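Appendix B, Record 12. Input sequence as logged:
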Amino acid sequence: MILSDLLTAIEPLRVIGRTDIDVHAIQFDSRKVEAGDLFVAQAGTAVDGHTFIPSCIEKGARVIVLDNPDYLPQQPSADVTCVLVKSSEEALGRLAHHWYGRPSEHLTLVGVTGTNGKTTIATLLYNMVRAMGHKAGLLSTVVYYVDGQAFPSTHTTPDALALNALLAQMVEAGCEYAFMEVSSHSIAQERIAGLQFAGAMFTNLTRDHIDYHKTFDNYRDTKKRLFDNLGKNAFAVTNADDKNGLVMTQNTRAKVYTYSTQTMADHRGKILEEGFDGMLLSIDGQEVFVPLVGRFNVSNLLCIYSAALCLGFDKLEVLRVLSALKPVNGRFETIRSPKGWTAIVDYAHTPDAVDNVIQTIREIKKATNKLITVVGCGGNRDKGKRPMMAQIAKRGSEQLILTSDNPRDEEPRDILSDMTAGLTEDELRSTLVIEDRAAAIQTACTLAQSGDVILVAGKGHEDYQIIKGVKHHFDDHEQVRKYI
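Logged structural output:
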């Protein structure tokens, strides 16, 4: 693509050099730069990409996009064009979108953001529209789909180049719709810059990623930017039960729709009957049985229902398809033991998510049966939530087993020490601390009697553990079934 064409996607502060040159590819990783490429230098969180500008020029990069004027060459080369921008991250997103043919403009792109529920909502919407006969794409924490073709998921929201490449594949495959999880990191890092969203959904907001955003207000305001940037023809679906639900949409130009299980809203729902195999719900006065469990899933389903109506689908058809949707991998998945106990594998890895899953189990199980919870916390992440998660899990369970999750570069015993700091001496005496996750799950299975419930929380769909930077195969489902 000719550079002058690419530059129409951004607003350069300054251009030094020719703009009639042919750009072979866009790169933000200096290691991938080849002759004829455009390199976008980003400050980054660990390494400043601006420091690699000289090596990229040596490799033959024809264009350098940067936002730090200190790195502008003292003696510009006739063979290299430098483009100074306000934000390299935003420029990369907009350049990537333009490079791949502005794919979001050829799709009905819908984003979902919030702390919990994103994967369930995006995935079930994807499954719903495909069940109705439409081609669709999905970008989720678990997997990426281009119509029916699956690709491994690397991030909740991919980097700008990978994201737009996937959207372009969806357009080429004839997809009408694309549903994507929009993480706070992707918003903060401008990975979604340039995308045209037909709609956005908000689930809820609880403590998460404070290690990155530093404060809860920063985390909230970052999420809000998705709604602030919606166009007037878009829709915004928000959770009226969350105190931040209306905060998200207070400055949006989009048409706002609310959903609730507790208060007045455009769309309302409640549980009529509940068991481990599903719930009978009332949604806008219509009864429907769904094979999902938990009050948090009532909110998720209301969000899906609201968005589907915004997309123009028939209400009764939406409810019919909802009744046939299956749980998402690692989201309140049930495994039955021949001995009569039940294991629930769930991705819950925040205090609120753990609390929601525990409360759901307690509402369904008999009072005479035990809840045995196996939970840990990831390394190199928000340390402040560790004692909170231990407190919530302990006070909602008859037996708590603290264990390792993804320790990453931390020592598992240090993470466990942070968790046990949230417990009293009496609570600690009745808590098992088993560093090896496989042994912890096996212990829970050994302790369980008929009618008891085991919650294995934190990893859900993940089939690995990261220990000292090395990824090892580990699957909670496999561990439970292995014991059975």
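The chain has three domains: 3-98, 100-322, 333-483.
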